[in-house]
Amino acid sequence: MANLPLIIYVHGFNSSPASWKAQRLVAHMQSIGREQDVLVPSLSASPAEAIEQLQAIVQAHRERFITLVGSSLGGYYSTWLTEHYLNVRTVLINPAVYPYRLLENWLGENENIYTHERYQLTHEHLAQLHALDIPEIFDPSRYVLLTQTGDETLDYREAVEKFSGSTQYIQEGGSHGFDAFDEWIPMILAFSEGKAIVPPATTLTVLAQQEA
Fold it and tell me: For all residues of the chain together, what is the average pLDDT?
């Protein structure tokens, strides 16, 4: 199975590999005997350091096709990587589109909810985020957007607009954590392998479906 894509879960702000979605993805990969094909790096709170970590992983596996699963801020990082590496495609989970605006409310001391690491979020960190902004998506077909209207942290419409040319599934209700994420994992793996993707029979209504 060496020719199968590598799946990299990219966690969001104040999150970690211990997050529920990351753990569900790892458990699924283990259940199908592909635990060697999934990575969940623990990212620095510094955006510049986080993107360097991710670049190092992508470059270390440059001979493979890679699918990033980017959640929230992880979706923002994943977008930058997808636009810079031809062997990368991305599934976006309630992605942050303008994190350098949103995180102005988090300036000062923060604590990671999983690791309990304390750190200072500074204006320099926001500038680092702004430097990673991608004004225009070059190839929308390399993205799938999964978003829920009940996201209490982000305005889902920003991602819908940003990735308007990509395949999108917009669900009514839900949350920023993306309810029932595990039901979408088979579809994520199908996308990673270039197969036809079919949404699950989920308990949340798919309000809109747009094919790339």
Answer: 94
> 143-148 and 108-111: which strand pairing?
unpaired
Convert the pLDDT of each residue in 37-68 to its tens digit: 999 999 999 999 999 999 999 999 999 999 99
* Residue 3 clears pLDDT 90, i.e. is over it: no
d(CA 94, CA 83): 19
Residue 166 is assigned to a structural domain of this protein: yes
CB 41 within 8 A of CB 17: yes
Give residue 143's Cα distance to chain centre.
10
**Residue 158 lies in domain:** 6-193
Query: Who's near 210: CB < 8 A, 6+ residues apart?
Result: 164, 166, 167, 168
Contact 94, 102 (CB under 8 A): no
Domain of 149: which CATH number?
A: 3.40.50.1820
When divided into structural domains, the chain yields a total of: 1
pLDDT band at 186 (very low <50, low <70, confident <90, very high): very high
Asked whether residue 202 is domain-assigned, the answer is no
